[in-house]
Amino acid sequence: MTEIKSIEKPDDRRDFPRGHLEIVNLSGLVFAKATFEPGWRWTESVKDLAGTDLCEVYHNGYVAEGRMRILTRDGAEQEVGPGDVFVLPPGHDAWIVGDEPCVVFDFAGGMGEYAKAGH
User: What global pTM score does this model have?
Assistant: First the structure.
């Protein structure tokens, strides 16, 4: 069965401090577009919603715009920017670098629970 949906008409939208998430649900795929504004940091904008010290969502991502710095539980730190495709396991913090929004497309499926109370 072929399914087509537009991210411009998401099934769900979640707003959080300095950002928002738009989600489309298809069979076998939760696809998300996350927009993070300058000043966004997971531990400041989403931590209280999630109820965990670090982001515990697994990400497969593509950065369309902007830059994001990532710090993993083991202390590794990297930066992603436009055109980068990344895999990021649970246990990380992230924040926006610079003064332009960062737009990330996530297709790992874990974003279905992102920025929901207790997730």
Answer: 0.89
